[in-house]
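Risk mitigation, structural track. In case the binding assays with nickel (II) ion fail to produce interpretable data, a predicted complex structure has been prepared as a fallback.
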Amino acid sequence: EQSKKRVNTKSDSVIEVHANIDDQSGEQLSFTMKKLFDFGVYDTFFTPIFSKKNRPAYQLTVLAKESALEDIILIIIKNSSTFGVRWNVMQRKIMQRKFEIINTKHGQVKIKIGIFGNLKKVSVEYASAEKIAEEKNLPIGTVMEEAKREYYKNLEV
Amino acid sequence: EQSKKRVNTKSDSVIEVHANIDDQSGEQLSFTMKKLFDFGVYDTFFTPIFSKKNRPAYQLTVLAKESALEDIILIIIKNSSTFGVRWNVMQRKIMQRKFEIINTKHGQVKIKIGIFGNLKKVSVEYASAEKIAEEKNLPIGTVMEEAKREYYKNLEV
Amino acid sequence: EQSKKRVNTKSDSVIEVHANIDDQSGEQLSFTMKKLFDFGVYDTFFTPIFSKKNRPAYQLTVLAKESALEDIILIIIKNSSTFGVRWNVMQRKIMQRKFEIINTKHGQVKIKIGIFGNLKKVSVEYASAEKIAEEKNLPIGTVMEEAKREYYKNLEV
Amino acid sequence: EQSKKRVNTKSDSVIEVHANIDDQSGEQLSFTMKKLFDFGVYDTFFTPIFSKKNRPAYQLTVLAKESALEDIILIIIKNSSTFGVRWNVMQRKIMQRKFEIINTKHGQVKIKIGIFGNLKKVSVEYASAEKIAEEKNLPIGTVMEEAKREYYKNLEV
Amino acid sequence: EQSKKRVNTKSDSVIEVHANIDDQSGEQLSFTMKKLFDFGVYDTFFTPIFSKKNRPAYQLTVLAKESALEDIILIIIKNSSTFGVRWNVMQRKIMQRKFEIINTKHGQVKIKIGIFGNLKKVSVEYASAEKIAEEKNLPIGTVMEEAKREYYKNLEV
Amino acid sequence: EQSKKRVNTKSDSVIEVHANIDDQSGEQLSFTMKKLFDFGVYDTFFTPIFSKKNRPAYQLTVLAKESALEDIILIIIKNSSTFGVRWNVMQRKIMQRKFEIINTKHGQVKIKIGIFGNLKKVSVEYASAEKIAEEKNLPIGTVMEEAKREYYKNLEV
Ligand code: NI
Ligand code: NI
Ligand code: NI
Ligand code: NI
Ligand code: NI
Ligand code: NI
Ligand code: NI
Ligand code: NI
Ligand code: NI
Ligand code: NI
Ligand code: NI
Ligand code: NI
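Fallback model:
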């Protein structure tokens, strides 16, 4: 195992934008989410919340780079029922990432390798595994596990 | 403590009606809930669910007596966006209930006493406690705890 | 408004299948959902639940016609981490449905009309509205509302 | 449609106060919410969270203007079981709002119109629609849609 | 891969017991869950629900064998605030299970193997993996994946 | 009741760290939570969120003192599947705390007393009450209520 110093970490900032929505359907909110991902935010998600006057509601959260703020506000205001958004800046640390293609007996699967100081992590890219799982009629877990097994087998050689 | 046989339990049946809703706002769903309670169901609630096509949604549940089924179906179909409901019959056991008025130093609070075999339970009626908490500007917990303390003090005498 | 008797309702049964999953990721569960919809179930959804030993988990629910039970069990067992499923039969009532195409100034939108006794309901088909919202760069709500407005305008003529 | 510059947006700040609660019932939490709304916060809601030691819990969130911070802390400490609160300041942008009364065939409904740069949004005020829905025994959606239809019909003239 | 007929499946029934709880804290509900697991139910979990009068609440669900019904009702009535429970019987199919001990380089891990017709599934027992992850200061995922890798390596020999 | 000035409040700051996780099971996330509590964070919890591509997911939140940031990031990166974390600093106000042992007829229970200006709050320590509830086979609520009753009885003397 590695023992480098904690040098290869990446630190930056990210905005977290929130809006509370109790007057739009989940069906329509999926469109809001789509528009935000099409624009290129880091992430978007809905949190179920218990709101006033017996209303089940959602909190929309958007994570993005600070320079995208103005665009994101416009997308949310335009594509949801909310009359306002709130946000703040958060600090962020992320692993250095690189990608590899793994040959498994069922096909090629893409993996993502993260490095953070002396920590290393391997993650199978869902989209490439899903493609094979569909083609070969296999459980997604089978394909993802095989990709990881193959990756570790290669390391041992 | 009591040691009677398990005789005073009440067993009956109840219908549980479900509808999944992804195309109506939480604001409007509060109206559906209101109509169901106005009609006189035992209980109604919404469960947040992760539905198809990235849609956050709700499962509506209604608990009521079997004879109310037809009315409940009409209320849901009329007052929500769903195109259908499903239901089944469940067995039910409930505690025998009686009510008492407790005199606390802040006012009168209603309590509910449940008996089930040799088990006994005391519950403070929220509405009566809320009234006093509002009038006397007290935390609701303070009022509810005082009612229970007074109840147990009386038992000891 | 109509005043026919409650004749045109449809009553049948549906199975509700459940499995609790605490040992599979949400990413992989989206695959399970996909396989179930590809097979042709009525609906599938995940409910967040608080499970034993501090485990956040999901309850998978599948709604389908009874004759599909064996296939659904196999799909779930194969495509999720669960070691078992449970189910029961529920009664169901659904509105009679028909579809219409509505011409709006932005394009054609499909609507679904439901009839249940003397109740009538109009719902805009999301997929057709989303297509126009994307093409014309409009909020989905705008497109859906216009389709409904147009539908009611035609009724008045 | 309008094409003014993005001038009429309003930017200010808001505090977001949080407290985690695992030792108070939902019934009592509704009282906490009531006290906060009675005071005049912008919004309050509960988020279900999976807390330590197998405890289902809630995160209380309060949105309010910064000057209200001290009062809000006192209301929460007094009216909930929490021993502490945390908060930060968020930036906020909201649409310019104005209100109109719409005459529908079922009665008068209040709508809220939001302007944000060249974006415009119309929202039906739930309370006024609910009043009519109750009086005329109509689905809330029917009343809200009619108000919007009437609004757009007037615009076309 | 196997190609036996679907013979080795196990079919039985299970009761699903529900109670809705809005007047007890999550902290105390963890005790209710503990008592139910101590008794020996199959599973117990809480679902967050949006209940009447602005109350965030929980639905308690218990899965157990039918013969345990009376005991479970008593445990719930005694150890929670509810005044009643409802239940029904569900059919159940579960995989045939056997257990194996896997030797990994970090220690012994227990795995569960499920057989259902020609479907086979391998699951790492969390408790045994957690023990090693704690002792060797490893991520739980690392230990679980290694156990599966070792299992599949042995199969290949 | 007391009428001191608001002097005995404690104000400090806390970091709130977030990570979104859609590619790890709830079972494994319980391990992440354990590692964070073993390290000594103030609190950790999971929020169910509706993430992209039909994925049910969780938001991990960690509350801790600022000086612990680097350690917490390492614990999360090592013990969960996430490739990054985000955080910000929040202000915090907490009640002054002291502890007392209460003698009840069933045994000794620990209570926590909080003071905040002229507000006072009493909370029963769950762990000590659970021990007695287990030993004496009592509902947890019974033990906790008795401890509070005893505390208030002593005050009256
Ligand atoms: Ni936030
Ligand atoms: Ni294979
Ligand atoms: Ni159900
Ligand atoms: Ni008092
Ligand atoms: Ni069910
Ligand atoms: Ni238009
Ligand atoms: Ni926050
Ligand atoms: Ni009308
Ligand atoms: Ni159920
Ligand atoms: Ni290793
Ligand atoms: Ni946050
Ligand atoms: Ni006692």
